[in-house]
């Protein structure tokens, strides 16, 4: 049997929503506040379910980062992860380090942008035999490698998490019984992933 460990990121492995923390880190407190004040009507509509979460997230991301060079953005993402390693919950870190040391297959499935999610695991995954992947939101760039502010992937939420996982591991669609999947989540957006797993963990690291 093949074992696969699938983790949500924000709130499950971390103590905070990293989108908010990253924007504040990358843009500064003042610009962070101004941007969210400008988008507050949109955020209210989103909370009332009158505007899609995915589109709201994309518009906010575009306001802060559209036109930035990808290499600059990636450097910010790496620095952010290095300086905010404490966002990873201690119990989660202990389990991940064990899984990496044992060479298990580990997948982080998140609506967050994979450019800043992946660096959180660089040190843990170094020299590991693990099949490790991050399935997050991917950003679009133009021909000059500048961020357009748009996303290349669907919002990795709900059923999309299972779909992305199955695309990453095609055998799951035809040989599901060959896998034992453990999934870890903390919100409604993880419901389908937890249901798909053989063993589900809800808010296990708190």
From TrEMBL:
This is Haloacid dehalogenase-like hydrolase. InterPro entries: HAD-like_sf, HAD_sf. Pfam families: HAD. GO terms for molecular function: hydrolase activity. The chain crosses the membrane at residues 22-45. Keywords: Hydrolase, Membrane, Transmembrane, Transmembrane helix. NCBIfam families: HAD-SF-IB. The keyword Lipid biosynthesis does not apply. It comes from the Bacteria. It comes from Leyella stercorea.
């Amino acid at each position: 049997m093949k074992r696969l460990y699938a983790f949500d990121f924000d709130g499950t492995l971390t103590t905070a929503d990293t989108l908010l923390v990253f924007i504040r880190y990358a843009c500064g407190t003042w610009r962070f506040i101004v941007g969210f004040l400008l988008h507050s009507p949109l955020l209210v509509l989103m909370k009332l379910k009158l505007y899609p979460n995915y589109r709201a997230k994309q518009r906010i991301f575009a306001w802060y980062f559209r036109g930035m060079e990808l290499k600059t953005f990636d450097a910010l993402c790496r620095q952010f992860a290095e300086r905010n390693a404490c966002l990873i919950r201690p119990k989660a870190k202990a389990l991940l380090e064990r899984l990496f040391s044992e060479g298990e297959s580990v997948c982080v499935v998140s609506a967050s942008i994979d450019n800043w999610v992946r660096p959180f695991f660089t040190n843990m995954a170094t020299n590991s035999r693990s099949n490790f992947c991050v399935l997050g939101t991917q950003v679009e760039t133009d021909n000059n490698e500048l961020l357009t502010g748009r996303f290349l992937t669907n919002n990795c939420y709900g059923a999309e998490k299972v779909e992305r996982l199955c695309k990453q591991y095609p055998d799951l669609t035809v040989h599901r019984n060959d896998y034992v999947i453990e999934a870890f989540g903390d919100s409604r957006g993880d419901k389908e992933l937890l249901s798909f797993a053989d063993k589900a963990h809800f808010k296990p690291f708190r």
